[in-house]
């Protein structure tokens, strides 16, 4: 995989931040909206080929940038996201 580019898709209710090359998704952080200003992070998955590169945290930081701009609060149900919010003090301002 060449340059890592994080993309975002959202249908108004569900969405994800993801890394894709061709038809294959190598990583994604999936969320669902629980109201106009509340987001639940449901799931994070990173392909084995990208393990150990901090990809999950990069996805989370992209999501945090987005919710800060949109003034959305986050509920991390995903175990990975929950652990990262505990570890990273600078991300906690977006928690519900």
TrEMBL record:
PROSITE patterns: GNAT (PS51186), GNAT_YJDJ (PS51729)
A Pfam match: Acetyltransf_CG
Domain N-acetyltransferase: residue ranges: 1-96, 9-96
GO molecular function: acyltransferase activity, transferring groups other than amino-acyl groups
SUPFAM superfamilies per the UniProt record, alphabetical: Acyl-CoA N-acyltransferases (Nat)
InterPro entries hit by this protein: Acyl_CoA_acyltransferase (IPR016181), Gcn5-rel_NAT (IPR045057), GNAT_dom (IPR000182), GNAT_YJDJ (IPR031165)
Domain of life: Bacteria
Protein name (database record): Uncharacterized protein
């Amino acid at each position: 995989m060449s340059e890592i580019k994080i993309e975002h898709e959202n249908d108004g209710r569900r969405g994800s931040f993801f890394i894709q090359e061709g038809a294959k998704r190598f990583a994604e952080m999936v969320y669902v909206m629980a109201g106009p200003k509340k987001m639940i992070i449901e799931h994070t998955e990173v392909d084995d080929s990208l393990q150990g590169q901090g990809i999950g945290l990069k996805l989370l930081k992209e999501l945090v940038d987005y919710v800060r701009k949109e003034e959305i609060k986050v509920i991390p149900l995903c175990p990975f996201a929950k652990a990262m919010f505990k570890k990273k003090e600078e991300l906690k301002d977006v928690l519900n």
